[in-house]
Hints:
alpha+beta; Bactericidal permeability-increasing protein, domain 1; Bactericidal permeability-increasing protein, domain 2; 2 domains; eight-stranded antiparallel sheet; 7 helices; 24 strands; 46% strand; disordered N terminus; binds 2-acetamido-2-deoxy-beta-D-glucopyranose; glycoprotein; BPI/LBP_pln
Amino acid sequence: MSHKFFVLFLFLLFISTSVCVHEEGFISVIISDKGLDFAKDILINQTIASIVLSQLPQIEKSVQVPLVGKAHVILSEITIKNIQVSSSYVETGDTGINVVVSGATANLSLNWRYTVSSWLIPIGISDSGTATVKVEDLQVGLTVNLRNQEGTLKLILLDYGCDVGELSIKMNGGAAWLYQVLVDAFKGNIGSAVEDAVSKKIREGIPTLDNLLQTLPKTISIDETAALNISFVDNPVLSNSSIELEIDGLFTERNDVLVPQVYHRRSDISVSSGGLPKMINISLHENVFKSASEVYFAADALQWILDELPNQALLNTADWKILIPQLYKQYPNDDMNLNVSVSSPPVIKVSDQDVGVTISIDLIVDVLEAGEVIPVACISVDISASCDAEIVRNSLTGRLKLKKFSTDLKWSKIGKLHMSVIQSLSSTALKTVLIPYLNSQLKRGIPLPILNGFTLENARIFYTPPWIAVCSDVTFLGDYYLRHHLAYVS
Ligand SMILES: *[C@@H]1O[C@H](CO)[C@@H](O)[C@H](O)[C@H]1NC(C)=O
Ligand SMILES: *[C@@H]1O[C@H](CO)[C@@H](O)[C@H](O)[C@H]1NC(C)=O
Ligand SMILES: *[C@@H]1O[C@H](CO)[C@@H](O)[C@H](O)[C@H]1NC(C)=O
Ligand SMILES: *[C@@H]1O[C@H](CO)[C@@H](O)[C@H](O)[C@H]1NC(C)=O
Ligand SMILES: *[C@@H]1O[C@H](CO)[C@@H](O)[C@H](O)[C@H]1NC(C)=O
Ligand SMILES: *[C@@H]1O[C@H](CO)[C@@H](O)[C@H](O)[C@H]1NC(C)=O
């Protein structure tokens, strides 16, 4: 079956994990019954799209017709024109995920032709024409399960079946005996052909979908420093009406085996509105943020040298002659810079209404003399900030707001510094490097584990310390995405 079939399942699958020992995942994804229903509808729509206009094998038979003779009848170009599903459901349970379609109808068209030969009519006669077949009460069911296999999801087809109920034939032209032959001798074959066609789509479709799952990355690169581990941990938990998947969710130092960040169609910024229930609930533990903090800190990514300032006040010791006389006395007319470094991994805590961030930085004032960098003073700054989480496209982002900061002169080789000097250096460091840098990182955000081809819609954020939950509906980008991004699969 075509790749279309699988996309639907991908969505279901993106939620699972493995291994007997219970490991902890720091991102949990719950697909609610609403989400499962949505996934099921996409699956059914895509499957129908892949079946419609497919041609069934031709059927031929020789039949002895009373008063007519021996007729050789051939049905060809048997085409499923359309399928209408009146009812369907998805349920999860101990055995797996069941999708059931009941009471579907399908219209088929076909060409018939025959030749009759008998001792009465030695020359033989033949005729041809078309017919339509209406299949009613078509039932389709399948059961799949999801298993964690070394951090990726494996989709297993456990059971499937297709059953044609009623079948009626309408001929355009042709003799009355032929109609009777079609009803008596061919009905069963047409029904089986439809059942086979549908079963084949399912049989071929599941492994293809599974292959697609295997191609999902285990890590997503965030930037040159960090990657996000989106390996599944544990097996998916199937409960009455939902599926829960656990994802490792921690930032790691970027290594070389990376997959670029997943494709997202631009322009879809979800609006935080609309009531619950939502299709999915993606919860991120504050350890996700902590791990990011540790990775960036360890990679020395939180360090900046400032040698040019908006007001140019720092460039030369001469500029500081009046405020810091000692500095000018020891290093007359030397260039200066400011070395700003975060001194410990920023502490990130999810609270009831936002995310609290505390950051400690060291500001080292350097004098540049004869090609040498001479640290002359160090100011420590403790910053308390908060961050309101937002959803932009399929990422969790935010904007840091400075709440307050306190300063302390750690050491100085140029005597005691005026409070005004300390304040001005500190706020310069915050305004010119720290906050803009952190905000640019935050703007990039943490990509949420949404399957390619899907996008969040009407997301809402809930703070339930130590978790942040993003409850959202999902829209399917549809064939546009499929054409451009899944073509390689089949
Ligand atoms: C499935 O197809 C039906 C009929 O074309 C449409 O109304 C429905 O919105 C589709 N559902 C999804 C989830 O694409
Ligand atoms: C099948 O054809 C009949 C008549 O030709 C039509 O009334 C019916 O709507 C069609 N069914 C579907 C599923 O399109
Ligand atoms: C599942 O639903 C059934 C009946 O609807 C209920 O008896 C059972 O306790 C539920 N199981 C769980 C795990 O929620
Ligand atoms: C990603 O997480 C999985 C599951 O927790 C773990 O086994 C794996 O080692 C992690 N990968 C990296 C690169 O840290
Ligand atoms: C989302 O899931 C978490 C558990 O992972 C749960 O604590 C929280 O209540 C859920 N939020 C909503 C709005 O359903
Ligand atoms: C900046 O200061 C840190 C210590 O606070 C030091 O490790 C680092 O080497 C300094 N960077 C430069 C370029 O001097």
